[in-house]
Design the sequence.
């Protein structure tokens, strides 16, 4: 680890420091970034070390704030990100994170104040989507369940192409629907989220299975029907299209060979998950994961009952997860 792994803009900010000190700070920042998701506590320690060495550099305070956020240190995250806004030109980029920290501190009203602040208008499309997700959560914190659903009914929710925010937005909308006791709609949107979640960042497939009364098991242990297997593989790997009308494989192949993308359905719709050989178009996303998540299969309760040796009415042990 040399510190050269840091992006060019961050390295430019560190040039105000002596060369040796800048290299030390850069190494800490690189480690904080690499460990943020898999080991947030260690990432937090690296970010704090960088802060002790260079507390007057905006990128350092920003990194410290994000590391604190991932580690669940809401108050410190807020403090650091406020400092970063004073020291750096990227002053509004982390407004959604700051609003979420207010939620973490049990202050949903303050989160809504940030959502409605003039600075929120300066966010890019990704930032606006993230802010809407936080706002929906704050509405739920306040018991405003219907408002939480309406908050996420933004144009990006109906986008016919997968975007970097699609999985998170679909999941948040499904979660809001579930809490508002709109189970059928929630199931549909959890299926959409599972299809959009190429990297397995959410538990959308599991939530869908729970609402539908299905069981999930590893295909390395048991075999199941081809139709169920294709549906589960598609939901987890993201190689799906679901539309209001059934799609035949031949129709998809013909449309793709003719170059007619408009003829290929690109939206997931109620309760039908259909396997599509070609990958859906993804716009401005990170590189897809190198490995597809472990294959799972949804079993109808009657199928599982036969395997467990119970009656088709499902009596006996292990009847599968119940809906939340």
Sequence:
């Amino acid at each position: 680890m040399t510190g050269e792994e840091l992006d060019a803009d961050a390295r430019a900010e560190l040039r105000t420091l002596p060369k040796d000190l800048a290299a030390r700070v850069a190494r800490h920042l690189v480690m904080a970034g690499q460990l943020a998701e898999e080991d947030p506590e260690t990432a937090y320690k690296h970010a704090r070390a960088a802060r002790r060495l260079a507390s007057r550099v905006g990128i350092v305070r920003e990194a410290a704030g994000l590391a604190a956020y991932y580690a669940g240190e809401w108050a410190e995250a807020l403090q650091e990100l406020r400092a970063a806004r004073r020291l750096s030109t990227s002053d509004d980029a982390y407004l959604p994170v700051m609003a979420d920290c207010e939620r973490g501190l049990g202050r949903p009203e303050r989160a809504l104040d940030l959502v409605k602040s003039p600075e929120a208008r300066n966010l890019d499309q990704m930032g606006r989507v993230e802010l809407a997700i936080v706002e929906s959560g704050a509405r739920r914190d306040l018991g405003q369940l219907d408002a939480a659903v309406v908050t996420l009914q933004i144009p990006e929710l109906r986008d016919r192409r997968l975007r970097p925010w699609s999985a998170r937005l679909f999941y948040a909308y499904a979660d809001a629907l579930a809490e508002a006791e709109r189970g059928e709609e929630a199931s549909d949107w959890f299926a959409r989220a599972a299809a959009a979640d190429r990297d397995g960042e959410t538990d959308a497939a599991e939530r869908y299975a729970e609402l539908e009364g299905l069981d999930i098991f590893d295909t390395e242990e048991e075999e199941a029907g081809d139709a169920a297997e294709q549906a589960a593989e598609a939901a987890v790997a993201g190689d799906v299209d679901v539309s209001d009308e059934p799609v035949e494989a031949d129709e998809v192949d013909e449309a793709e060979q003719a170059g007619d993308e408009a003829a290929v359905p690109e939206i997931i719709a109620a309760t039908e998950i259909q396997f599509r050989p070609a990958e859906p178009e993804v716009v401005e996303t990170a590189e897809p994961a190198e490995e597809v998540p472990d294959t799972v299969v949804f079993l109808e309760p009657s199928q599982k009952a036969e395997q467990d040796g119970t009656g088709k009415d499902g009596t006996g042990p292990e009847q599968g997860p119940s809906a939340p």
